[in-house]
Hints:
Blueprint: E1 2-6, E2 9-11, E3 17-24, E4 32-38, E5 45-50, E6 57-59, E7 67-72, E8 77-82, E9 91-99, E10 102-105, E11 109-113
Parallel strand pairs: 2-11
Antiparallel strand pairs: 1-3, 3-8, 4-5, 4-9, 5-6, 7-8, 9-10, 9-11
Amino acid sequence: VQLVESGGGLVQPGGSLRLSCAASGFTFSTYAMSWYRQPPGKERELVASISSIGGSTVYADSVKARFTISRDNAKNTVYLQMNSLKPEDTAVYYCRALRRPSGFWGQGTQVTVSS
């Protein structure tokens, strides 16, 4: 089982990034997918989730109207489009696959928002 995040980096406030998480080793289309983040010195928190077929999404209040989660089950990939980025969005971003009782985490990708 692998979840490999990519797309992180350094961006100025107000900028955009698109994170990708490529999955392998399990039946991707049957798992709900989520993005979490862990800011420096803080606990990991949920950013957004999407159901297995993509019909339902949930967002943290802090990212609503700025971030969009989506998935392509044909490519076994989940995305997080991040717009209007703020310094407080700086964190390591992780993707997670969940179909109880099974769950998997990726290794994370750093996003830094700074001028």
